[in-house]
Amino acid sequence: MNQEQDEKRTITVRDVAQKAGVGTSTVSRVINNQTGVHANTRREILKVMLELGYQPHVMAQGLRHQKFPTIGMVVSNITNPLFAAIVQATEACLQQQGYQLLLGITNGDLQKEAIMFETLVRQRVSGIIASVVSDRTDRSLRTALDYHIPVVLLDREIAGLEVDGVTHDYATGSQQAIEYLVNLGHRVIGLIISTAILPGRARLTALQDHMLRLGLSLPAECLCDVKMEAEEGYRAMQGLLALANRPTAVIAGSNQLFVGVLKALREARLRYPDDLSLISYDDVDITRLVDPAITVVTRDLAQFGREAADLILKKVQGGQQETQRRSLPTELLIRESCASPK
């Protein structure tokens, strides 16, 4: 067999099994999404399938020619009220168009996310909407894109990768928050934020830039860049309260961090806005129901989900080729958690 004939030869299950060092029955179980295959072995087989360009006949026909009425959605934590609202709105839009939503939850685990994308590919979904764990790697997305499955990102941008997405104009709401505090008389403002992903970085940049425009400095000890966890917000708030020149106002960069901030304040027996002013991001149950209610930089989460659904449907149904990035507004919703410093 000459080289040209060899290159045109159809890749078989036996070829995949030989390169992966497993039996053909193991490869078949992976292809058919059956149990009984170790996760590491499963990943290796899928990797070899991609490297060799192997596609099972049914999968190939499904991905290239058929329309399967299912959209995959990958989020990190469904217990976060933000994701619950976004998923609900997305599902409602998709159902109106005859599509079912297949939800995957990663719990912030990159390895689990990669497996979730592989699973959605094997399920032959028409498209994927994803809030990926990290925007510093394209590993998971490549799994879908290699099979020409369109992807819409939620509040993420990955350098060097042209993918549709929906983000937010965090500058407007953040600037409004700083101006509001400054007009109340605050000059020492603490920030508790996580810059591991795009929203945190965009929020921090907007907050810092506007403080500079207003002639304010942000001391290093007043900036707490932490992981997106309530316990991290709790420890960061404890640190700010221990400062000799304690901030008179604190902005929590997410609803998860805000939970920790609130816990630290209660343990210190401090009250807002009497002892300290508070602003958080995103209007969720806890920011609405605590007393006094919390001033927040808010966005329309239902609209966020609807825009994501619209983008993926345009790709799936209309074959839209050009990449689209949509940006939705944010604004400051003033409640009772801020006052002039004493």
Describe the structure.
The chain has 342 residues and is of the alpha/beta class. Helices cover 46% and strands 15% of the residues. The protein has helices at residues 3-8, 13-20, 24-31, 39-52, 57-64, 81-96, 110-122, 139-145, 170-184, 198-213, 230-241, 255-267, 285-289, 301-318; strands at 70-75, 100-105, 127-130, 151-154, 164-168, 189-193, 223-225, 249-252, 277-281, 295-298, 325-328, 331-333. Strands 2-1-3-4-5-11 form a 6-stranded parallel β-sheet, with helices on both faces. It has a 6-stranded mixed β-sheet with strand order 7-6-8-9-10-12, with helices on both faces. The longest helix has 18 residues, at 301-318. The radius of gyration is 24 Å and the shape is elongated. Residues 1-8 and 58-68 have low confidence and may be disordered.
Secondary-structure element sequence?
A: HHHHHEHEHEHEEHEHEHEHEHEHEE
Shape: elongated
Largest sheet: 6 strands, parallel
Please tally the helical runs, counting DSSP H or I stretches of 4 or more residues. 14
- Rg over CA atoms: 24 Å
Helix share bin:
40-55%
Instruction: Describe the strand arrangement of the main beta sheet, using strand numbers.
Output: 2-1-3-4-5-11
Q: How big a fraction of the residues is strand?
A: 15-25%
* N-C termini distance: 87 Å
Number of strands: 12
Structural class: alpha/beta
Overall average pLDDT: 88
Which consecutive residue ranges, at least 5 long each, have pLDDT under 50? 1-8, 58-68
